[in-house]
Fold:
Amino acid sequence: MTVIEMADIKENAAAGEGRQYIENICRRAKQASPAIACASSAQKNAALIKAAEKLTAKTDFILAANAIDVSKAGETGVRPQMVDRLRLTEARIKDMAEGMRQVAALPDPVGEVLWGTVRPNGLEIVKKRVPLGVIGVIFEARPNVTCDCSALTLKSGNAVILRGGKEAVNSNKAIAECIREALSEAGLPEDAVILIERTERELVTELFDMRQYVDVLIPRGGKGLINNVTANSKIPVIRTGEGNCHTFIDDSYDMEKALNISLNAKVQRPSVCNAMETLLVSEKAAPSFLPVVCEAMKAKGVTLRCCPKTIAIIGKKDVEEATELDYETEYNDLILAVKVVKDVDEAIAHINRYGTGHSEAIVTESLENADKFKKQVDAACVYVNCSTRFTDGFQFGFGAEIGISNQKLHARGPMGLPELTSVKYVINGNGQIRN
Structure:
């Protein structure tokens, strides 16, 4: 046997073992699915409260695991903004626990009657909410996602398979351990939440093929991750996450509002999907607003990539000239594209061409232009005189979110409990047959 042949045998064996590993996880989640789907609200809420208590009680345990991940990320050259998404603190763990409690306090969507009728032949038809079943969530290095997704899938009666980025593997293990313990203590199957602990990329490809076990996949992350899942999965996919977001400063604007909103949208947390990536300014507002906002952005460490009209107003010092690619890019960094547009109509046209359907904002004192912007911008969330940073399940009062969908089928915007359900028609009769 040649060396090449021996290598092929080893590779095939490893691939088979990886598939077996993933299939076993999917089978376990499928087996747990009926019990969690039929669990009472009281049981699910008890598990969520216990999970919140365990997250708080085991803060030091979780932080120790997270410290390992953060240290390795630093050693491997992960960008500081991405390390910020990875890093946990006592405050962030406290917020995660509070999110669990908020989800517990929300109405249970399972069994909600959406519509009902009695037909002339006496058939009673009722449309009600039911869980989706088994949900797979593939996400990057954000440990809080493990918590958010577990809370929402549990309350909505779904089993969940979690596959986080390798950079957060130790943090995710610690969080998942707390949640699984809480499920068991509440009398629910701990396999309603399962973390894929191995980090080989090939395992994600194996997950794509598990349609007999998994009902839907939800990718949370950058453009590459989302496109990979959408293009290759045999399981239905809900697209989420990619956010090339804009803020437009209209002809009539309030300087204080415009400056504060622009700075918040860009610098408050630049690594997230609802951060502003392009600032659009009308021709009339540009001479007064651009010098002020650009200096403020520079003071915050933001790199500016500007159109020729912007450069003509603020000068060439410490700015770069924008390219077409800049208007298409989700930076997730302290980089901002700046462009002068003629008016609200040109701003809308730019957004609808380059935006990803996520979150878009206008700052204006004109009710007419605000109304036009709201009606014509094609996005899941459209803001008037406030920051795009509010696109978030917690901020919307959902307790948490499993993702922010920028597609139009089934779910759009921050996905809370109702978006994690499907419907079932229940028909009651008394011997009716169709003629």
About this structure: The first helix runs from residue 3 to 38.
